[in-house]
Specification:
Elements lengths: L1 E8 L3 H12 L5 E4 L28 H13 L4 E3 L3 E5 L4 E6 L3 E12 L3 E3 L2 H4 L9 E3 H11 L6 E5 L3 H12 L3 E7 L8 H8 L6 E3 L1 E8 L3 E8 L12 E4 L2 E4 L3 E3 L2 H5 L4 E2 L4 E2 L12 E3 L10 H19 L8 E6 L3 E5 L2 E3 L4 E8 L3 E10 L2 E11 L5 E6 H4 L6 E7 L4
Parallel strand pairs: 1-2, 1-6, 2-3, 6-19, 8-15, 9-10, 9-15, 10-11, 20-27
Antiparallel strand pairs: 4-5, 5-6, 7-16, 12-13, 13-14, 17-18, 20-22, 21-23, 23-26, 24-25, 24-27
Length: 418
C-alpha cells in the first residue's frame, strides 16, 4: 500500500483546480487519478468557445481552458496518473485502483477530493418506447465521436432535450453539414443557457418545440423516423398532436447525473435533490477528510463556477491536513418556494462567509431571492431574470450570518406581483 497526503479522484477542471489550490496552501504530496488517457475531462471534447469569461475574462475553447490548468499543474510536483480507474473508496480513506502500468494498487490518503464529474441520462433512464435500432446517441457521446474521434454520427437529426450539450450539438451538427430537424423539450421552458438557445438554435433557424416529447421510435437496423407529440400539464402525450420526422439520428440531451458510485460505496450521505454528496460550506462531506466539488457535487452550467468551487475544496482539504477545522454548530439550508436545491446543504455557525448555489423551478422575471431565519428575513436579492437552466448564486457575509438565531435557513423565490 502506498500513501499520499492528498488524492484527487478526477483530472477534469474540478480536480485540476482543487489540486492547484491545495498546492498553493503548501500541500506537497498530491496525486490526481484520472480514468481517461489524458487530463482535462469533458473539456477535451468541448471544442466550442465560451469558456473562461469569468475566470480569464476572455473566450476560450474547452481544450484551451483545460490547457491553462494543465500547464499550471506541470509547473508543480503534482502527480497526474492517467488511465487509472478508482474502484473503491473506504471509510478510512483507502482507495483501490487499477491501471495498465501499476496494475491493482491500494492507496491510503490523508485527505480525498471527489471530482469525478457527471454522466448523461440514457434512453433506458427515460424509457422511450419504440424500436431498438441504431442511430440513437446521447449528445455527449455524439460530441466525442465528432470532435475527438472524427466520426459523423448522422445526417438528419432530431434532438430530444434542450440541455446545453444538446443545444451545442445542434449547432455542431449543422456546421458539419447535417440537417437538424428539431429540438424537442418536455418542459415548457428550455433546460439550457439563454445564450446557447440564441446562438445554437435561433441563429440556425432550428425549431424548438417546448412541451413536446418523443413518443415513438421507428426503424429496423437504422433509425428511420421519430414521432413527436405535445404533452399536457401532467407531461402526458396529447392524442392527435403527433408529428413524424424522417431522420437517421436521435440525440438525447435529457439531463446529467453526478458520478457518485464511489461516494455511495464509501457510505457518504447523498442529497436526493442533487444526487451529489451533502456538504458543508468548505465542501467537506459527512466523511471527515473527504471533500467533493464540481459536477460530482451538483451539475453546473459554467466551468468557471466549477473551478471556483473546486478551489474552495482544495483550500479546505489543505486546512484539514494542517489540522485546521471549521468551528461552530450546524445551520441547515433548505429550499423554499421556487428553489430546487441548495449547495452547500449546511454550514458552520462561525463561517466567515457563505456562498450559496441553487437552481429555480420555473422562469421568473423581476423577482427576488429571500433568505429567511424562521419568519425573519436576513437577506433579499433582486433578480430581473431566473431560469432553471441557469444556476444562481448569492453571497452572505459574516455580518448577515451573525444575525441568524435559529438552526435552519430557508432560501425561496419571491415572485413579482401580477
Amino acid at each position: 500500500m502506498t500513501e499520499h497526503e492528498l488524492v484527487v479522484i478526477g483530472g477534469g477542471p474540478a480536480g485540476l483546480a482543487a489540486a492547484l489550490a491545495a498546492w498553493e496552501q503548501d500541500v506537497r504530496d498530491i496525486l490526481i487519478l484520472e480514468r481517461d488517457n489524458q487530463a482535462g475531462g469533458i473539456l477535451n471534447q468541448c471544442i466550442h468557445n465560451g469558456f473562461g469569461l469569468h475566470r480569464f475574462q476572455e473566450e476560450l475553447t474547452g481544450p484551451e481552458y483545460a490547457g491553462r490548468f494543465i500547464d499550471l499543474v506541470k509547473q508543480t510536483d503534482i502527480q497526474i496518473r492517467t488511465d487509472t480507474m478508482v474502484l473503491d473508496l473506504t471509510r478510512d480513506r483507502v482507495l483501490h485502483a487499477v491501471s495498465p502500468r501499476q496494475g491493482y494498487e491500494a492507496i491510503r490518503a490523508g485527505a480525498v477530493i471527489l471530482a469525478m464529474g457527471c454522466r448523461e441520462r440514457t434512453r433506458g433512464a427515460i424509457s422511450i418506447p419504440g424500436a431498438r435500432c441504431s442511430g440513437i446517441f446521447t449528445a455527449g457521446a455524439a460530441q466525442r465521436f465528432l470532435n475527438m474521434e472524427g466520426y459523423m454520427v448522422g445526417k438528419r437529426v432530431v434532438i430530444l432535450g434542450s440541455g446545453d450539450i444538446g443545444l451545442i450539438m445542434a449547432r455542431r451538427m449543422t456546421l458539419e453539414g447535417a440537417k437538424v430537424l428539431a429540438c424537442v423539450e418536455l418542459m415548457p421552458y428550455s433546460g439550457g443557457l439563454t445564450r446557447n438557445i440564441v446562438q445554437c438554435l435561433n441563429d440556425f433557424d432550428i425549431p424548438l418545440y417546448l412541451s413536446h416529447t418523443v413518443t415513438d421510435i421507428r426503424g429496423k437496423n437504422r433509425l428511420e423516423q421519430v414521432v413527436v407529440s405535445q404533452v399536457d400539464g401532467n407531461r402526458s402525450p396529447i392524442p392527435g398532436t403527433e408529428m413524424v420526422f424522417d431522420c437517421d439520428t436521435l440525440l438525447l440531451s435529457v439531463g446529467l447525473l453526478p458520478e457518485n458510485e464511489l461516494s455511495r460505496q464509501a457510505g457518504i450521505e447523498i442529497d436526493p435533490r442533487t444526487n451529489g454528496p451533502l456538504v458543508w460550506e468548505n465542501r467537506e462531506t459527512d466523511l471527515p477528510g473527504v471533500f467533493a466539488c464540481g459536477n460530482v457535487l451538483h451539475v453546473h452550467d459554467l466551468v468557471d463556477y466549477v473551478s471556483a468551487e473546486s478551489e474552495q475544496a482544495g483550500i479546505a482539504a489543505a486546512a484539514y491536513l494542517h489540522g485546521n477545522r471549521p468551528a461552530g454548530g450546524e445551520i441547515r439550508l433548505v429550499n423554499g418556494t421556487g428553489v430546487s436545491y441548495t449547495v452547500p446543504q449546511h454550514f458552520h455557525r462561525e463561517a466567515e462567509t457563505l456562498e450559496l448555489f441553487f437552481r429555480v423551478r420555473n422562469i421568473y422575471r423581476n423577482a427576488a431571492i429571500r433568505v429567511l431565519d424562521g419568519d425573519a428575513q436576513i437577506a433579499r436579492f433582486k433578480r430581473e431574470h431566473m431560469a432553471p437552466g441557469e444556476m444562481e448564486n448569492i453571497k452572505l457575509p459574516k455580518v448577515l450570518l451573525d444575525r441568524v438565531r435559529g438552526n435552519v435557513l430557508t432560501v425561496e423565490i419571491e415572485e413579482a406581483p401580477v
